[in-house]
Structure formats: structure tokens, C-alpha cells
Design a protein that fits this description.
Blueprint (H helix, E strand, L loop, with lengths): L22 H11 L3 H14 L4 H13 L3 H14 L4 H13 L3 H13 L5 H13 L3 H14 L4 H14 L2 H14 L4 H8 L11 H10 L4 H17 L3 H17 L5 H14 L2 H4 L11 E6 L5 H9 L4 E3 L5 H14 L6 H8 L4 H11 L9 E4 L8 H7 L4 E6 L2 H9 L13 H21 L4 E5 H6 L1 H11 L46 H9 L9
Parallel strand pairs: 1-3, 1-4, 2-3, 4-5
């Protein structure tokens, strides 16, 4: 589970007025809430033709644009509203939320702080601000906002869910479970919450939700997406109870449902990684140094669930290192000038790679660092643990030649099983079928071989299993690669109080344990097709990549 934004009801966060009482406004707002954007736009446009200079109406128009993911249009409308009511907390929160969707994090934070200073009274405004601060990775502030929203409207299940997610990020798992229990009492059909709750702790024979979850399936769930949440929750809880066979049956059922409703072709990702190997040759990667001389970033890359969060926590336990979380900034800043130059984001991968090789690399490094400043600068170094930055190793090397890169690897079977049993939110569509996982892992493995061949010694290849086997030895190697002095605190990473927003948020608050290393072997028979695929292509299933 990874809740990055918080839940919203899709409505503008403005106070009631004569305009908001207008029947046309109310029809537009109802249509927006029902997801009927065409109807919402029709009523809002009618009202706009006869009502001038209304901050409430402009806010409604902005909310409709946000629902349609047209954030530029939303910004146009909310800025008109801000001109009319520059100190309105709801409008400022609405603008902050729009700016964060446009990846303008500094602007979003500035407006969110102004909204807080304006003294918001309504719970919806606090919920919106909590979402903004969450997306800016400012989790102390997001927790305060979500708590205030829940205190002001305790019967609102969305506020309780957001508070639970924020408490989970901060490591208060008992508090999070209380919030999720409250959500399910208020709204028993909130199936995502069942899944979120199951992941908060190791379930026991005396205290679990298996009977409750199986009863939900027996009664029937009409929406396949909701059935998927319950299947994943059951798979997790039954694995905790060591009921291996039933656990995998529910996992397979949930994963099949999820995969059936995805529009995804793994061969497109395979082709992309092949194009990267062809496009970034040794000659290109060994051009004279043209990047930015900065040693601040430490990139932790690999596949999701391979151990990147563990490495991030070890590093950020060091006094000279802070964690910036999983940032999309490098990918965004790499593509931004290319899309601007071409006027489109629909660019064939070969053409895209050709353009990236001609970027101003020092400028790319500078823009990347500047885009992280709302999170970084507190320490000499920061960790960017976006796993998929493994696709950008060539560009990272060219743009930031002195940045440290740590590639965390894991036994291919363990890595694929860990991904299969995680229901990611809007990411990693290859993780719901063994066939997709096999093809994706093989392409990733070959790409990493290419980077290591072209840039020998540039990355530290660190095996998750090696950390578990010899924590101190692996930690010393990690710190040495990153030019960091030894600090004992790095062995007590589980005591770190900073938030974790990833699927590993629960695990990384425990001391290092070895039970996950070979857990996939409990499902050796079910995973046999994947093992056979790896052997056919020269990979040993029992070894790290």
C-alpha cells in the first residue's frame, strides 16, 4: 500500500454563499461528485455565463478541471478565484493541490503554508492540505492536517483513512489500525481499507481477520477491483498464519483479477530496456565529463520489494545523510526539455533516447538538484530511492558523474514473489502475472549487466541476502562506497523515526530478520513456471541477479 495523495470527494473547498446555493451550482457539484464531468461542465458553464467574478464558481470550475486531470486549466480558474479572495484558506489549499499536481512543489508548499496561516475552519480544507504535504513528503505537517480534519469531522471515513495512512507512515501501526477499524465500521464496503489494515502487523491465530474477509467473498463482491483488495488481504493474513496453500490460492485469484483489468503489454517495457542498451553505448557513456560536480545524491536503484527501503533506512541513519524518498524528479527533469522541444509526450523510445543523449547534462543535474530542494539540503547527502531509476543509470552518470549509485539486488524468485504478493497503487503493472514478471526481470537483469559492463565499478551491486547474512559487513561496504565514515547508528536503522511511505513501511521498523529470504520456497511448486523460465534463459533461480 502506498497512499501518496489522500482521499478527496472531488468537491471544491469553498464556503457556502448565494452562488453555492444556486440550483445550477448545486447540479454541477452533484454531477462532479458522481463523476459526470460533461454534465458538471455544462451546468458550470451556464452559471458562468450569467454570474461574473465569483470565487466560489471559479473554484468549482477548477475542481471540474482537476477531476478531468487538466491541471493547467484548473490553475487558470483557481488563480481567478485567488484574485477575488486572496486570503481564503480553501482557495489557497485548492491552488496548492493544483500546483502539486503540476509538480510545482515549492509553489504548492508556499500556498499550503499560506492556507494554514489563514486559519481554515472546515475539515475538507485540512484534508486537502494534508494531501499536499503528503505529496511533498512533509509527513509531520500532513499528519497534523489529517488529524485536524478527523477531529473536526470524526464521522467522515475519508478523514479517518487519511489519518490511518499518515500514522502508518510514521510507524504508529496500532493507531493506524484503530483508524482503519473506524473506517470499516462507518463504511463496511471500503474494500481498500481491508487490505491496508491487513498489512499493519503480523496476524496471529488469536487475532486476525480471515473469517471476516472470507465472509465478504462468500457474500459476493460486484466490483472486481474490490474483490482484488480482499483476495490480497487474505493472501497476506494466511501467509502470516503459515497456511501456505490457501494463501497462494487467494494471491493467484487476486493477481489474475488485477491483471485482467490492466491494459499492459510487458513487451513494450522489454523493448524499452533493449533500446536503452543499444542507445547508451560505452562510447557515449565515456564522453569527457560534462555533468554537474555534486556528491549530494545517493541513488538507490533496483526492483521494487528488493530491499531499497532497507538500504535507504541504513544510509539515512547516518548523520550526513537524509532520505528524500522515492522521487520521480530525475525522470521528469530528463524528459521535460525534450517534451517541450517536440511539443508532445508521445515520442517513440528510440527517438527519446536519441534526444536524451544530446541534453545539456550539467543543466540536467542542476535542475534535478533544484527540484529536490524542498526535501534536501539538510545534510551533506540525500538518498533518492526510486527503484525505476535503474532505467536512467546512463543519464545519471552523465548528468551527475560524482553521484553515488547503489544497486540493490535480490534472488530472482524471492524478488518476483515479493512483487507478486504486493498490490501496488498505480505502479508496476508487470507484477501481477508470472509470465510478465519473468520477462520483465530478465530484461532488467540484462540492462543492469549492460550498465555494469559499460561502467565497471560505477555502482555498488549489493545483495539483499548479503545484508541479512552479514549486516555489519554489508553496511561497511555500503558506507565505504558512498564515501561515508562508519557510524554505529546505521546498524540500528529500525530505530529511525523518519516516515516511510513504501510497501515496506512496516518491515523496516523491525530489526533485520531473515525469514523473508527464502519464503518463496514455501511456494516452489506454484512458482515452478517462473523458475523454469529463468533456467531457460541462463538465470539461476536460487541466486541473486
Amino acid at each position: 500500500m502506498r497512499n501518496r495523495q489522500g482521499r478527496h470527494d472531488g468537491q471544491p473547498v469553498t464556503a457556502e454563499s448565494s452562488v453555492t446555493r444556486d440550483p445550477e451550482y448545486r447540479q454541477a457539484a452533484r454531477a462532479l461528485k458522481a463523476g459526470n464531468l460533461r454534465e458538471a461542465r455544462r451546468h458550470a458553464s451556464r452559471l458562468t455565463s450569467r454570474v461574473r467574478d465569483s470565487a466560489e464558481l471559479f473554484s468549482l470550475q477548477a475542481a471540474i478541471a482537476v477531476a478531468g486531470r487538466d491541471f493547467r486549466e484548473a490553475l487558470h480558474w483557481i488563480e481567478q478565484a485567488e484574485c477575488l479572495a486572496p486570503d481564503d484558506a480553501g482557495i489557497l489549499a485548492h491552488k496548492a493541490n493544483t500546483l502539486v499536481s503540476l509538480r510545482d512543489y515549492s509553489g504548492a508548499m508556499w500556498h499550503a503554508e499560506r492556507a494554514l496561516a489563514a486559519g481554515p475552519r472546515r475539515s475538507e480544507v485540512f484534508a486537502t492540505l494534508g494531501s499536499v504535504f503528503t505529496r511533498c513528503d512533509l509527513h509531520d505537517k500532513s499528519l497534523l492536517c489529517f488529524r485536524e480534519a478527523a477531529n473536526r469531522d470524526p464521522q467522515n471515513p475519508a478523514h479517518q483513512y487519511n489519518l490511518g495512512a499518515a500514522l502508518r507512515f510514521k510507524g504508529d501501526f496500532a493507531g493506524a489500525e484503530s483508524c482503519f477499524d473506524r473506517v470499516l465500521r462507518q463504511r463496511p464496503g471500503d474494500f481498500e481499507t481491508y487490505y491496508a489494515r491487513s498489512g499493519l502487523r503480523t496476524q496471529s491465530m488469536e487475532n486476525n481477520h480471515v473469517a471476516e474477509l472470507e465472509a465478504l467473498l462468500e457474500r459476493g463482491i460486484s466490483d472486481p477491483r474490490n474483490e482484488t483488495f480482499v483476495c490480497y488481504a487474505l493472501a497476506k493474513e494466511l501467509e502470516d498464519l503459515r497456511d501456505w496453500s490457501r494463501s497462494f490460492q487467494y494471491l493467484q485469484r487476486g493477481a489474475s483479477l488485477k491483471r485482467r483489468h490492466l491494459r499492459y503489454d510487458v513487451q513494450r517495457d522489454v523493448a524499452k530496456m533493449h533500446a536503452l542498451r543499444s542507445g547508451f553505448t560505452k562510447a557515449i557513456l565515456h564522453r569527457p565529463k560534462m555533468g554537474l560536480d555534486s556528491v549530494e545524491p545517493i541513488f538507490v536503484i533496483g526492483l521494487p520489494r528488493a530491499g531499497s527501503t532497507l538500504v535507504d533506512r541504513i544510509l539515512s541513519s547516518h548523520s550526513q545523510v537524509s532520505s528524500a524518498g522515492e522521487l520521480q524528479n530525475f525522470a521528469v527533469e530528463s524528459m521535460r526539455p525534450i517534451y517541450a522541444r517536440l511539443g508532445t509526450t508521445q515520442v517513440p523510445i528510440e527517438q527519446l533516447i536519441e534526444h536524451t543523449r544530446d541534453l545539456e547534462f550539467a543543466d540536467l543535474g542542476r535542475r534535478y538538484l533544484e527540484s529536490t530542494r524542498h526535501l534536501t539540503g539538510r545534510c551533506a547527502h540525500f538518498v533518492d530511492k526510486m527503484p525505476l531509476n535503474f532505467l536512467y543509470v546512463g543519464l545519471i552518470h552523465l548528468a551527475l558523474p560524482n553521484a553515488h549509485i547503489v544497486h540493490i539486488r535480490r534472488n530472482p524468485m524471492a524478488a518476483c514473489y515479493a512483487m507478486l504478493k504486493t498490490m501496488f497503487k498505480g505502479a508496476y503493472p508487470f507484477s501481477y502475472a508470472l509470465d510478465d514478471l519473468g520477462h520483465y526481470y530478465l530484461a532488467y537483469h540484462r540492462l543492469m549487466e549492460h550498465w555494469n559492463d559499460c561502467l565497471p565499478g560505477r555502482m555498488l551491486n549489493l545483495d539483499y541476502e548479503a545484508i541479512v547474512k552479514d549486516q555489519e559487513g554489508a553496511t561497511r561496504a555500503l558506507l565505504g562506497h558512498c564515501s561515508l565514515d562508519w557510524e554505529e547508528a546505521c546498524l540500528a536503522f529500525h530505530e529511525l523515526e523518519t516516515p516511510s511511505t513504501t510497501a515496506s513501511a512496516v518491515e523496516v521498523r523491525r530489526p533485520l530478520y531473515s525469514s523473508s529470504v527464502a519464503r518463496w520456497k514455501r511456494f516452489e511448486r506454484e512458482l515452478q513456471p517462473l523458475a523454469d523460465f529463468f533456467r531457460e534463459h541462463g538465470l539461476q533461480p536460487g541466486l541473486a541477479a
